[in-house]
Amino acid sequence: MKRLTLVTGGMYTAEALRRQMNFYFGTGLSIEIIAVDQGIPRQKKRELIVFSSPSVREDFKRISGGQKGTIEIEAGRALNMDSIARLTALKSDAPILFVNDHKDSAEECIQSLKEIGLLNLDLIPCAPPELDRRGCRYALTAGESHLVPEGVELLLDLGCRVLDYPSILKISSALSIDISDKAPPGTRYLRQIVKLASWRESLNARLLSVIEGLSEGMISYQLDGQILVVNEKAKAMLMEDRSLFGKRIQNVFQDKAFRDFLLNTGEASETVLSINGRDLLLNRIIHRESRTAVCRIKSLSEIEEDSLRIRELRKKGFYGKYTFEHILGSSTAIQKAKTIARKLAGTSLTILLEGASGTGKELMASAIHNHSPRRDLPFVAVNLSAVNEALLESELFGYEAGAFTGASRQGKPGLFEQADGGTLFLDEIGEISPAIQKGLLRVLQEGEVMRVGGSRIRKVDVRIIAATNRDLFQRIRDGKFREDLLYRIRQGYIRLPSLQDRKEDIPELIDALLADAGHGSRTVESGLRDKLCRYSWPGNIRELRNLLACMAAISESGILTEEDIPEGMFPLGTDSRSTADSENEMTVLKAVERVCARGRKAGRESLSEELMSRGIQMTPARIRSILNTLTQKKLIHRIPGTYGVLLTREGENLLVG
Known about the structure:
Blueprint: E1 2-8, H1 11-25, E2 29-35, E3 48-51, H2 54-64, E4 71-74, E5 77-78, H3 84-87, E6 96-99, H4 103-115, E7 123-126, E8 138-141, E9 153-157, E10 162-163, H5 165-175, H6 187-197, H7 200-212, E11 217-222, E12 227-230, H8 232-238, H9 249-252, H10 256-263, E13 269-275, E14 278-287, E15 292-299, H11 300-315, H12 332-345, E16 351-354, H13 361-370, E17 379-383, H14 389-397, H15 415-418, E18 423-427, H16 434-446, E19 448-450, E20 457-459, E21 463-468, H17 472-477, H18 483-489, E22 492-495, H19 506-516, E23 523-524, H20 526-534, H21 540-554, E24 559-560, H22 574-597, H23 604-613, H24 620-632, E25 636-638, E26 645-647, H25 649-656
Parallel strand pairs: 1-2, 1-3, 3-4, 6-7, 6-8, 8-9, 16-21, 16-22, 17-18, 18-21, 23-24
Antiparallel strand pairs: 5-10, 11-12, 11-15, 13-14, 14-15, 19-20, 25-26
Helix pairs in contact: 12-13, 16-18, 19-21, 22-23, 22-24
C-alpha cells in the first residue's frame, strides 16, 4: 500500500485535503494526518510528507526538527470557487478582515481574488496570534470560520482551499500512481474560467486579458448554445475571423461533430476531431449551476512538439534544480530575502538579484522558478560573462542556417526560444555590451526575437530573472549600462546578503555542505568551527564549500581539524582577517570624514573616488558592505532620502582617539 503523511495547520483542512486525495488516488493510499495545532507525534520514518503551506512546513520543522531522507512536497493551494459568485455581490467601503490560520495564507487568498478581478473590497489579512478586530465589522475566511474574532460578523466562508493540480501531479509522481483517468490537467482552472464567464459584465476586461494569454484555444458558452467568449487562438484553429460573441453554436460552426460535442449535456469529456484538416484535442467542462460550459482546444501536433521539447530540455538540464528549502539559514537577512522572493515568484515581474559572488544567486533564481506558475516548464540559466562576446548574440537569440562561418546547416534556436514558456536566468548581466543590451531590451519590450541572419520575428513568452554583483547605477553613470534596460529588469528586486552579514548561519551551513558532499558523518572540530564563524568569507558560501570539500578529501578522520587545511589556503589565524576587516573599516571611515569635510555627500561613488585618489581600489559592493557594518556599529548613520552617510559622535570619537 502507498503511504504519505499530510501535515496541515488544523483538522478541518486535513479532512478536506484527505477527501480530495482519496478522489485522485483511491482508497489504496494510506494517509497519516498530522494537524500542527493538535501536536506532532513522536518521530518515525516517513517516506513522503505533503505540507499544506510554507508556514505549516516551517512550524513542523521548528517543532520536530525535520527528517532526513524524506521526500517533501510543499503543496500549492487554490481557492474553492463554489462561493465566489456570491462574493462579487458584496459591497463595502469599510475594510474587511480575511481570516486564516496563517497570515501568509490569508495574503495568498487575497492575492488570488485580486488576480481574478475581485478588486471591489478592502481586505486585510488576519491570523493568530493577531486576531484583533482592527476596527472591522465584517470578515471573510477560507474554511477557518472558528478563528473569526468575537464581535466580527462572518460575511462568507469560501471553504477550505484545495490542492492545485500541479501539486496533485507532484504527489502522483512521488507515489508512482497514474491519475490520467481522473480530471485532466487544467480542469480546475477551466471550471474557474467557466464561472468567471457568467460574470462577464463586471469582470470583462480581466477575463479577456486572461483568456487571450492562454496558449490554447478556448470557447465559453451557455448550454443553450449562446457563445460568451472565444479567444483569438480558438478562432485561428477554427478558421473564424468574425466576432462570435452572442451568436449561437448551431448557426456558426459547420462541422456537425464539433457542434454535437459542444452541445452534449453529458459529463465533462474529451475527444479528438479533425476540423479544417487539423487534428484537435477538445476538452469540455460543464458547470450546471450557471448553465455554462467551456471547451479547451489544442492542436495534437503542438501537444507532441511541446512535450518533446520539454523532455529534450530536461535531458539537457534545463530545469530548476533547487527550491527554497535548499536556501539554508535562519538569520534575519536570509529569511527576509526568501520572504520577498516567495511573494515575487507568483508574479510575472522581471526580477533583479543583486549580491556578491558566491552568495547563491542561481540557487535563488531556481527556487523562484520552482515556486512560480512556470515551475513545470524550462528553467534556462546562462552566465553572460562566461560566453564569448562574439557568440553571445547568437547564443541568446539563435541563428539561421548559414548566418556566419561555422554555423549549423539547420540553424539553431537561442536560449530565449529554448526557455519559451518558462524562466531565463541571466547571470552577470552587468557585463554585457551595449549591442546585446539593445537586443535584450527589444525582447523584454516586445516579447519577440529575431535570429541572427534571419528575417522572421518569433514570439516568446519568457520570465526573466537577472543577477549581478556590480553596481548597475554606477555602470549607468559610467555610460556602460542602459538606464531603460535596468528598469525593465528591476521590476522586482532582491538583495542577497553576503556570508559576512549572516555569520549566525555558518554552523548550519557547515553541516549541510558536508552532508551534501557525502560527508554527513563528519564534523568540524569546535575550535576550528569558532574560527570559521569569525572569518569574513570574501568568497561567501562558495569559499566555505570549497574549503570543506578540500578538508574532507584530505582528512582521514571523522573530525576535521586545522591539520586538514593545506598551508596558505585559509588564514588560520582568523584574527588576521579580522584585523584586515578593521583596517578596511577605518579606511572607509576616514574617507567619509574627508568627503564630508569638503561639503560633499559621502556616498559610494564619492567614497570610491576618494579612495582611488589615494591609490586604494575598493569595489562599490565592498564599500556598501563596509558601510552596512559601520552603520550596525553606530559609527555612521544614513541621511534620510539620500544615498549619503554622516559620522556619528561615536565615529568621530573613534577617529580622534
